[in-house]
Amino acid sequence: MTFTHLHVASAYSGHYGVTRPEYLAEAAAAMGASALAITDRDGLYGAVKHIGACLQLKLDPIVGVDIAILDEAANTLGRATVLAHGKNRGIGWQALCQVVSESQRHAKKKPVGLTIDQLAALVQRGDAETGFSAACTVLLGTDNPFAVSALDGNRDLALAQLSAWATKFVAPASLAVEVVSHLTKPGLALSSIHATRLIELADAVGVPAVLTNAVRYLSPDDAVTADVLDAARFLEPLGLFVPQPNAQAWLKPAAKMQQLALEVCRDYQRARQLLDATEALANRCRLEPVSDCGWGKPKTPEKSALGIDGNPFELLWAKTHDAIEWRYPAARENSKLGLQVRHRLAQELMTIHKLDFATYFLTVADVAQMIRDMKVRIAARGSGAGSLVNYLLGISGVDPIEHDLLFERFLSTERTSLPDIDIDVESARRHDIYRAIFKRYGSTRVTLLSMQSTYRARGAVRDSGLALGFDEDQIDDLAKNIWRFSAGSFRAATEVKPELAHLAKQLESDRKMNLLVDITERLNRLPRHISMHPCGVILGDASLLNLTPVEPSGLELPMSQFDKDDMDPMGFLKLDVLGVRMQSAMAYAVRERERVHGEKLDIDSIPLNDPETFRAIRTTNTLGI
Question: What's the predicted TM-score (pTM) here?
Answer without folding.
Answer: 0.94
